[in-house]
Write a structure and sequence with these properties.
Length: about 150
Amino acid sequence: MTAVANDQRTGRSLVSEELFDSIAHFVAVHDAQPWERAERIADQAIAFIATAATASTAMVPSDDVDLGLHAFILHTQEYARFCHAHAGRYLHHNPAPGGPGRTLEAVTTGAHAMKAAGFMVVDALWTVRGENAAQCDSDCGRPYGQSE
């Protein structure tokens, strides 16, 4: 992966290094992810929550990003403080047991909302059954949610 200097925000920048490392460590240990991948997952999960706090559309994480969401939520006090700081309320995690699961369209909406909010999106972590949900399409460059 090639790093490019840009002004995009990261989820990592929104929390303390101690909390970030703890979330990434949880993903590495409990989800058997290599450390660098665990860090990217933690970053994307934090950015996802910050975006969902003010998004005007429903957001669905990818399977990979969901690992980081669960790890963050288990840091209950820090997660509650983060929610209140970014959303003014607690953001509940409401899975849909027995539902259809993640769709490419729903996950793409979440990834594009993060990009529109100025966050870096790690495309490799935004997939649904092997299909990339994060790459820009013909809507790139227009304000999010507008078709023309």
